[in-house]
Every structure is written in C-alpha cells, then in structure tokens.
Design brief:
The complex is a heterodimer of chains A (421) and B (178).
Chain A: H1 2-13, H2 18-32, H3 38-45, H4 55-68, H5 71-83, H6 89-105, H7 110-114, H8 116-125, H9 130-139, H10 151-160, H11 164-170, H12 172-193, H13 205-214, H14 220-230, H15 236-254, H16 263-293, H17 296-307, H18 311-328, H19 331-348, H20 353-367, H21 375-384, H22 388-411, H23 414-417
Helix pairs in contact in A: 1-2, 2-16, 3-16, 4-15, 4-16, 5-6, 5-13, 6-8, 6-12, 8-9, 9-21, 9-22, 10-19, 12-22, 14-15, 16-19, 17-19, 18-20, 19-20, 20-22
Chain B: H1 16-53, H2 60-81, H3 99-131, E1 135-137, E2 140-141, H4 142-146, H5 148-171
Antiparallel strand pairs in B: 1-2
Classes of the chains: A mainly alpha (421), B mainly alpha (178).
C-alpha cells in the first residue's frame, strides 16, 4: 500500500495529470477493500448532483469574456482617474484592478497575462523600479482570491459543504487586509518615487467623469453580483447566470468588442479550464470516499491529535504545510484533494470551516508566488521575458508582506468570522 | 493551465488518421459549445421564469446539473486533446529533451490505462442503468445522462495512448523539432 502511494506520488511529481493519479488511488483503494470498482464511476457521477457547481462554468465563461474584451483597459482608466493623484497611485490602481479581475476570472494566471500586459509597461513608464513593478504584477496575479465571486471560494464551499454566500461575506475583511497591506507598500514606494506632488497627475474631474462614462456598463457588474448574493436576492448559481447574460449583452451588443464569431473559441477555452477542474473533482469524490471507507481521516486525526497538543502548534504546522502545498499544486486541485482531510482535523482543534477556508486560500495565494515553483513566477517569467531568478528577488518583499497577512488571518479568527456571525 | 500552449497537436499527425482525429475533435468542440449555450440559455430562463412568471421548468434544474457534467467532461476531453490537463510540472521545468519525452511516455501511458479502466467501469455503470431502467429526471433515462462518462474517459484513453506513442517517437529523436 505504501509502495503504491509512493509510486502514485512519483507519477504526480513527474507530471502525470492529477485526475489520473487521484483516480488510480481510488481504484486501488476500492480494490483493496473489495468494493466493486464501478463505485469509482458512481462517485464521479455525483458531479451531476451538486447544484452550486453550475456557478463554476458560468462565472468562468463570463470572466473569459471580460478578459477578451477591453474591460481591463476601461478598469485601469477608471482607477487611474480616481486614484492616480495619490502617491503610489498607479501601483495602488494596479493592485485594486488585479484583485477585482482575479475575483472574476479565477486565479488561473489570466490576470498576469491580461492585466500585467497593461500595467507593467505603465508602471515602468511612470518611473517605478523594475523589481517593484515585476513583483507587483506577479503577486497581484492571485490577489483577489478571497473576494467574491472567485472560483476557489465557490469550490471551497462545495468541497467543505459550507454556504458559499457566507464565504463570500467572510472573504471581505481578510481580502481587504491583504489589499491594504500591499497598498501601503506601494504608497511607500510612490513617496520615494515622486519627490513632489507636482510631478503626479492632478485629480481631474473631467477625466473622472469620462472614465466613469466609458465603463458605465461594467461598473454595475460587481454591484449586481455581490449585491444580489449578499442581500439573498440571488442564489450563487443564479448570480452566475445573470453575470453571463449581462456580460454577453454588454460586451457583444453595447461595446461590440466580442463578435459572435469569436464566441465559440472563448467558450471552448474557458471550458478547458472548467473541465480540468471538474475531472479532478470527480476523481476526488471517489478517492475521498475510498479514504473515508479506509478510515484515513480518522487515523490522521488520531495521529495528529496524539502528537500536536495545542491549537497554536496545529495552526503553525497547517501554515507550513499549506505553503509547501501551494508551491506544488494549483489552488483548485489542492483544495479538492486536501480540504476533505483537513476539515475534521481543524474541527478537532475548534477551527471553524469558514475560518479554515480563509486560512487555506490565503496560504494558497502565497504559494502561487513562492520559489522555486510557484506558478505565477513562471507565467510572469514567460510573459515579461525575465529570468525566473529575477522574479524570485522581485517578489520577495511582496511575499513577506502577504505572509504577515496570512499570519494575521490564521491567528486572528475574528477577521474571518466577524462578518458572518 | 499553463499559459504556454504546446505545439498545435503535432501528435495527431497528418495522414488520414490524423484528419479523422481532427474531425472528431471538431465534433467534440461543437457539442461542447452547443451544450454550454443551452446551459446559459436555460439558466437565464429559469431565473426569468421564477421571478416574473412565478414558475420554472420543473426538470430545468436537474437538466442544468446534467449539463454541468457534460460540459465539464467535454471540457476535460478538450483539455486532454490540447495536452493541458492540470498537473504538477515540477520535474518537466528542470529537465530537457530527450528525458522530458521519455518521462512523458510513462505518464501518458499511465493516464491512458487509468482512463481506459474508468471508461470500462463507466460502460458497466451505463449498462446497469439501462438494465434497471433507472431514471435520471423527468422521463430521461440515467443511461443517457451518464453516457458522457464512458465517452469522455474513452476519448481521453485514446488521446493519451496516441500521445505516449508520439513522445516515444520523439524521445528517440524521430520528431525532435517542435
């Protein structure tokens, strides 16, 4: 059994698709327990019995449409008009727009590719240092993971069986904390950059109005989605459907930036991401069930509680574990595979599932940018044509700040829980 | 989920077999796009109907959930065809040819075997559902809604088998150029 586990781990590290590795684990475990292996497929079919899942293809498709349109440009222009006068204003703009964009497109590297291409040259032109600018666009690629309607939040709700609406609310404060902390860092860089206020663009009411007008159709979007869900007017999957229709009407009929001919390509492209996630989710429903049959969560629980006495130690170990995990797995697979095992453990130490979700996602967000193998580093290296080592150095201060935020989120449950209680 | 797209399906080849594969791929894509469009339309209709006419199609919600399964698995098949399944690519980032291809032969073959096994179990699942005349929702039989599973896993198995062959040839320098 240990040998099989090691073999599967080796295959995963060598790059075998994760769904196959997980499914093989389930097949093997069911085989050992003399369960008919048809059970694996029956578990996979449970995907068709999970109502909230509908939100995932819909939000993903809407996000891809937004990414293909000129919405990112309008978003940057709008933030520039509103925040450009501040010291470090452009950097703060970059953070805010990236966070918003990631919330709507999922943390799949789309942000770095779509927003980074706009923001990195703008930052460099405005005189920000290369390393600062690189660090910013790289780390911002996963900022916004905690804001609704980000896919990882929805997926956590599904896997942990927590209400997605409540997760949407719980993410507000921890997400804002990260944004504020990085904003302060940018503010500092901005003051260092501009000696006098005269060099900064002054606030222009005319440009602000023009920018608001240009984005007039997109500004209501977060309000419709978040307002609808927060007030309980829409279920999450309904909000997703409304978002898709709204985005389609706005980008195709009003702005006319996406033609009908391009639609099938965008549909397919977005569903490649969704399919990649769902097939892992399906395999994982089976493997989780096999593990429960073999009492793995219970054994793990006994083992950990026997060796880790305090909640504090558990949280420290959890942080370390998640950081390492985040460097190797993308947030979706990590979530699907690990959360079912972590939930009973965390409950044993009195950690609320919602708080665990915030800890989990905040750690994963850092993992995306952690050397040597964080995904954002590679995407940024590829996108901006810089050696990976340069990116290691450029992201370091940002990582340290985010790490401090993760510690706060982990050890101060109030931050995650106050809004939902 | 790599942003770097691999060579445009060089593994499919150019002969009549390759053309057939590409035709099959286009058919999968058409089905995917149509089903996603139906999903969006129906989801929107359900909200409208519920809020304006105070009624909704009764089988609408289970049908939508089935569509999620179908669209998801067709997406997974497309991901396989693009060679973009989610994986841990630690090793491949630090290895060069021909070792990268040699490793791929093993992982592709493994994926093909697992997918093939799942396809076989899925065929059993669908056969059972047909034999017991199980119903998924309304009067739609379960064998029909579940038939995407043998289909998707079967297609994945075939694609990964072909991919392993492609990487085998490449690891011996047969198709060294990308």
């Amino acid at each position: 059994m240990i040998l099989t586990g090691l073999l599967l781990l080796a295959l995963a590290l060598l790059g075998a698709p994760l769904f196959a590795v997980i499914a093989a684990g389930a097949i093997f475990a069911f085989g050992r327990a003399d369960v008919d292996q048809i059970a694996v497929v029956m578990e996979v079919y449970r995907i068709a019995d999970t109502p909230v899942l509908l939100a995932i293809p819909l939000f993903t498709f809407a996000g891809f449409i937004l990414g293909e349109s000129r919405a990112p440009n309008r978003l940057v222009r709008l933030s520039d008009a509103l925040l450009g006068w501040m010291p470090g204003g452009l950097a703060v703009i970059a953070l805010v727009t990236c966070a918003l964009f990631t919330a709507f497109t999922g943390a799949s590297g789309v942000t770095i590719v779509a927003m980074g291409a706009l923001l990195y040259p703008a930052l460099r032109d405005a005189g920000y240092r290369e390393n600062f600018s690189l660090g910013l666009v790289t780390t911002s690629g996963s900022l916004g993971l905690l804001f609704a309607p980000s896919l990882p939040l929805i997926l956590y709700g599904i896997v942990a069986e927590v209400s997605v609406d409540r997760l949407f609310i719980a993410g507000i404060l921890p997400g804002t904390l990260m944004l504020l902390a990085l904003g302060l860092w940018s503010f500092r860089e901005g003051r260092f950059l501009h000696q006098s206020a005269a060099e900064r663009p002054a606030f222009s009411a005319r440009e602000a109005v023009a920018a608001v007008r240009a984005a007039a159709w997109e500004i209501p979007l977060p309000i419709i989605v978040l307002g609808g869900v927060y007030t309980g007017f829409f279920a999450v999957s309904e909000a997703a459907a409304v978002t898709v229709i709204y985005v389609l009407v706005v980008e195709m009929l009003i702005y006319r930036e996406i033609s009908f001919a391009r639609l099938p390509g965008i549909m397919r492209e977005s569903m490649v991401l969704v399919g990649g996630i769902l097939v892992i989710l399906g395999a994982s429903l089976a493997s989780t069930n096999a593990m429960i049959d073999a009492q793995v969560p219970m054994k793990l629980f006994d083992f950990v509680t026997a060796h880790v006495s305090s909640k504090l130690t558990f949280l420290i170990l959890l942080n370390i574990f998640l950081l390492v995990l985040g460097t190797m797995l993308d947030v979706f697979s990590a979530l699907i595979i690990v959360v079912p095992l972590l939930l009973p453990l965390a409950a044993g130490y009195g950690i609320e599932p919602i708080h665990l979700g915030m800890i989990f996602l905040a750690n994963m967000q850092i993992g995306y940018c952690t050397p040597p193998v964080g995904m954002n580093l590679f995407i940024a290296s590829y996108r901006f044509n810089k050696p990976i080592v340069t990116l290691y150095r450029a992201t370091l201060p940002w990582l340290l700040i985010l790490f401090a935020c993760v510690l706060l989120i982990t050890y101060w449950p109030w931050l995650s829980m106050v809004m939902v209680q | 989920m790599n942003s770097a797209r691999p060579a445009a399906r060089a593994w499919e080849g150019n002969g009549p077999f390759g053309r057939a594969l590409r035709l099959l791929g286009s058919m999968e894509d058409v089905l995917l796009v149509v089903l996603l469009a139906v999903m969006i339309g129906l989801a929107a209709w359900q909200i409208l109907a519920r809020n304006i006419f105070d009624t909704a199609i009764l089988w609408g919600d289970p049908f939508l959930r089935t569509l999620v399964l179908w669209v998801g698995f067709l997406g997974a098949v497309a991901a396989g065809r693009d060679d973009r399944q989610i994986n841990v690519d630690v090793v491949s980032r630090f290895t060069g040819e021909p070792w990268r291809s040699r490793i791929r032969v093993a992982t592709d073959l493994f994926t093909a075997v697992v997918s093939g096994f799942l396809a076989w179990q899925a065929v059993r699942f669908v056969k059972d559902a047909a034999a017991y005349e199980e119903i998924a929702f309304a009067s739609v039989p379960l064998w029909l809604t579940a038939s995407i599973l043998p289909l998707a896993f079967g297609l994945l198995a075939i694609r990964y088998l072909l991919l392993s062959g492609f990487h085998l040839r490449r690891s011996f320098g047969g198709e060294a150029d990308e």
